[in-house]
């Protein structure tokens, strides 16, 4: 990621004595004090935001600032009240969890150099009141399908499938992140085992490389796609449907195989996320649903609606023409092929859309 610009320097006045005639501490002690002060200083963030009113600089926030503070600054810059904000960050842009108002920007993975996308979300619920000022009776909302954002770490397909089919990781971060990464590695090994055991089916013509080479390749930090999804659908005995936000096509892996369950993913050209059905307001303790009967097409229709909404918001990436910048060396790149080639040549894996 971009290195933040230095916000200033510690001003240290070299004095021979302190007030009261006491001798100044030795040089080593002064150096230790300076180091401790520097270690305690929060890193200031260089942020921008984009909204319908234009692009604005967002100053005065550090990695320790809270989401609540960020929303206040964004409200000043965009005129959108915090209660009506929808904030997307990172690449590909993903929604920030606005329920975590006291979480630090570091915890939310907001980094220096990020451009935040801020929109007015008219659908966000506002508390209704009666004429006497008392809250209106609570109405239980219908469950709504939503995207569950997983890390953009080159294993998003495997993490998404594991989340949908194995369920969310029941652990606190960072243990949850480590467990999710372990699950992704297990699925990569599974796919390599299946491909190695069926060389006639998974030939060089299908894989684009020799069978043995593919089996090594898929166990590295490489992107997955249709081949991997078809194998995972067979392994889990579950139909896996992927809604594409650019083409609005829904690809069904395992369709016609007689599977009773269906998992839903959304894909924006470079990133997969699982879809889940949030619990109704009256049952917040229940985990979200990630599996649906194949006889029920309503969740599938909702997935298509989410893809259409994402397309309207242009939340997709044209793989052949999108402009990228390597955040490690700042090199400009165009399209998926250049990004993959650059990653192979340099080992740099952190890219941002220009």
TrEMBL record:
One Pfam family from the record: OTU1_UBXL
GO biological process: endoplasmic reticulum unfolded protein response; ERAD pathway; protein deubiquitination
Recorded catalytic activity of this chain's protein: Thiol-dependent hydrolysis of ester, thioester, amide, peptide and isopeptide bonds formed by the C-terminal Gly of ubiquitin (a 76-residue protein attached to proteins as an intracellular targeting signal)
InterPro entries found in the cross-reference section: OTU1_Ubl, OTU_dom, Papain-like_cys_pep_sf, Ubiquitin-like_domsf, Znf-C2H2_OTU1-like_C
Sample GO molecular function, one term: cysteine-type deubiquitinase activity
GO CC, any one term: cytosol
PANTHER family for the chain: HIV-INDUCED PROTEIN-7-LIKE PROTEASE, UBIQUITIN THIOESTERASE OTU1
Protein name according to UniProt: Ubiquitin thioesterase OTU
Originating organism: Petromyzon marinus
């Amino acid at each position: 990621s971009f290195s933040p610009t230095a916000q200033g320097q510690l001003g240290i006045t070299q004095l021979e004595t302190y007030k009261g005639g006491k001798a100044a501490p030795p040089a080593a002690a002064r150096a230790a004090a300076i180091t401790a002060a520097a270690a305690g200083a929060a890193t200031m963030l260089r942020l921008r935001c984009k909204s319908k009113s234009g692009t604005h600089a967002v100053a005065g926030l550090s990695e320790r600032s809270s989401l609540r503070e960020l929303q206040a600054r964004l409200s000043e810059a965009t005129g959108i009240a915090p209660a009506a904000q929808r904030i997307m960050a990172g690449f590909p842009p993903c929604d920030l969890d606005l329920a975590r108002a006291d979480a630090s920007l570091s915890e939310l993975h907001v980094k220096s150099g990020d451009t935040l996308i801020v929109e007015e979300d008219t659908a966000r619920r506002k508390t209704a009141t009666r004429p006497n000022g008392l809250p209106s009776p609570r109405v239980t909302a219908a469950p709504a399908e939503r995207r569950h954002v997983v890390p953009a770490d080159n294993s998003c397909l495997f993490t998404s499938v594991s989340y949908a089919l194995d369920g969310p990781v029941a652990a606190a971060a960072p243990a949850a992140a480590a467990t999710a990464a372990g699950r992704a590695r297990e699925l990569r090994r599974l796919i390599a085992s299946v491909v190695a055991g069926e060389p006639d089916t998974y030939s060089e013509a299908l894989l684009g490389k020799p069978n043995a080479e593919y089996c090594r390749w898929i166990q590295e930090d490489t992107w997955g796609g249709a081949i991997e999804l078809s194998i995972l659908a067979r392994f889990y005995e579950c139909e896996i449907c992927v809604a594409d936000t650019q083409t609005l096509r829904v690809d069904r892996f395992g369709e016609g195989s007689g599977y009773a369950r269906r998992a839903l993913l959304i894909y924006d050209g470079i990133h997969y996320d699982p879809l889940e059905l949030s619990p109704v307001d009256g049952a917040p303790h229940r985990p979200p649903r990630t599996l649906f009967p194949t006889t029920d097409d309503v969740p599938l229709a909702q997935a298509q609606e989410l893809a259409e909404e994402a397309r309207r918001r242009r939340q997709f990436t044209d793989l052949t023409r999108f402009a990228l910048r390597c955040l490690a060396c700042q090199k400009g790149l165009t399209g998926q092929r250049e990004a993959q080639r650059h990653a192979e040549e340099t080992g740099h894996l952190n890219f941002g859309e220009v």
